[in-house]
Amino acid sequence: MELTGLSTEQAPPITAPVRFFVTAPLFGILAGLLIFFTDAPTLMNRYSIESIIITHALTIGFLSFIMLGSMTQMLPVLAGAKMPKVELVTKYSYILMVVGVISMLLGLYTSNRLLNIIAFIGLGSGFLTMLIATALSLKTVSNFNATVKGISTSIVFAFFVVLMGLYLLYSYISDDIDSTHMIVANIHSVWAVFGFAVILIIGVAFQVLPMFYVAPKFKAFCKKRVVWLISIGLVIWMFLSAFYEEYTLAGKLWIAVFVWAFATTVWLKLSRRRRPISDVTVWYWRSASVFLTLGSFLWIFDEYFKHEYIVMVAILIGGFILSIVIGMLYKIVPFLVWFHLNGMGYMSIPTINEMINKRVAQIQFILFIASLIGFIFSFYMQNLLQVSAISFIISMVLLEYNVISPVLIYMKTKKTKPDFDMSMFEAPKE
User: Fold this and answer.
1) Dihedral (C-alpha) 182, 188, 194, 196: value to the nearest 10 degrees?
2) What is the mean pLDDT of the chain?
3) The pLDDT value given to residue 370
4) How far apart are the first and last CA of the chain?
5) Which position has the higher pLDDT, 420 or 92?
6) Hey, how many other C-beta atoms are within 10 angstroms of the C-beta on 67?
7) pTM of the full predicted structure?
8) Chain segment 289-322, per-residue pLDDT in tens
9) Mean pLDDT throughout 223-232?
10) How many Å apart are CA 313 and CA 319, to the nearest integer?
11) Torsion over CA of 172, 175, 177 and 178, rounded to 10 degrees?
12) Are 94 and 20 a contacting pair, CB within 8 Å?
């Protein structure tokens, strides 16, 4: 592992990101249960309430929790950005988001106006608090490198995605769903996937692949141009989607080409890493590259089939994002535990690689990939849906186990005496 360039003194308390990480797989389990009790024809309609609920259980409950939790740790450590009142911000944003997402799922399913209002307040306040705090922390960054630029760009898109999401939720509260709602919903989903998630992952990859996998560094063109080119493509696509829908293919092509270029670059970087030891996280990155490539180009060809395959596009690109965040959890959580315990003077602790049960992680990976493939084919063989849902649920249970295990090591170790007293190295309080 290459740890040069890390600003370890700025690291937030371990509870700030971990509370998000531990909760996220629970929403994955919930999404799997919802899929199990839904039929394939209903899920083929992207605008059905069931599809919307399942999508947001995964995107808000699972993905957003992991991504926001990761940013609270990555920005201070990778960029030296200090989030103001990080423990207070993360604690109350977490509570608001948990209440908000549960209220939203129940409110949409039951058409309960009060629950949707609670969701509107909870999600709006929780997301915006986290995003504003993150944006403020970026003002303290002195080295505005490619990773920071990628994260900053993703935060800009996230602001718009949240505002559009609140508008869409308000449409359900006011029971006023018109053609504008559908246009905004389309932009909301595409910007959430490519503008927030994909650009955030690209920015983080610039630092993480060389650091965790000792892979070759990205070339200057990739670091300086790819994020901006994808962003420009998203703005062009939005304009065409809103006013010249018949020409949206041009915007899709623009986005897909540069997204595919990134996916290919990731594959090549992993193939050329200096320590070619394979583990489950490498499998996840490679799988993600395949999912992103297939999903991006199917998104283009779906234009010729009147959006008949848009749900498959969502599964493939969603598979890319899910694969990345799960793979990163297997790196980030053990690293956090080791980093914080080591900083407190504990030396006789498991290594980062020893904190995760590798066999369980491999089984979890196989079940997860099998579930995604099963979800795709279930549109042709509907009996596969329930089997795939069970596979997905078990994979999320195993993921929760592997996330909690390092946290339990941390809690158990903290009850013992440190091997070395680090307090003598602390700066005197003024």
Assistant:
1) -170
2) 86
3) 96
4) 36
5) 92
6) 25
7) 0.89
8) 999 989 888 888 877 766 667 888 888 999 999 9
9) 90
10) 10
11) -160
12) yes
pLDDT for res 76: 75
Nearest CA to 409 out of 328, 359, 327, 338 is that of 338
pLDDT > 70? residue 187: yes
Encoding tokens for residue 230?
């994808």
Say which residues have a Cβ less than 8 Å from residue 344's Cβ, sequence separation at least 6.
414, 418, 422
Dihedrals phi, psi of 351, to nearest 5 degrees: -75, 170
pLDDT of residue 296: 86
Is the predicted pLDDT of residue 424 greater than 60, yes or no?
Answer: no
Per-residue HEC secondary structure of the chain comes to CCCCCCCHHHCCCCHHHHHHHHHHHHHHHHHHHHHHCCCHHHHHCCCCHHHHHHHHHHHHHHHHHHHHHHHHHHHHHHHCCCCCCHHHHHHHHHHHHHHHHHHHHHHHHHCCHHHHHHHHHHHHHHHHHHHHHHHHHHCCCCCCCHHHHHHHHHHHHHHHHHHHHHHHHHHHHCCCCCHHHHHHHHHHHHHHHHHHHHHHHHHHHHHHHHHHHCCCCCCHHHHHHHHHHHHHHHHHHHHHHHHCHHHHHHHHHHHHHHHHHHHHHHHHHHHCCCCCCCCHHHHHHHHHHHHHHHHHHHHHHHHHHCCCCHHHHHHHHHHHHHHHHHHHHHHHHHHHHHHHHHHCCCCCCCCHHHCCCHHHHHHHHHHHHHHHHHHHHCCCCCCHHHHHHHHHHHHHHHHHHHHHHHHHHHHHHHCCCCCCCCHHHCCCCC
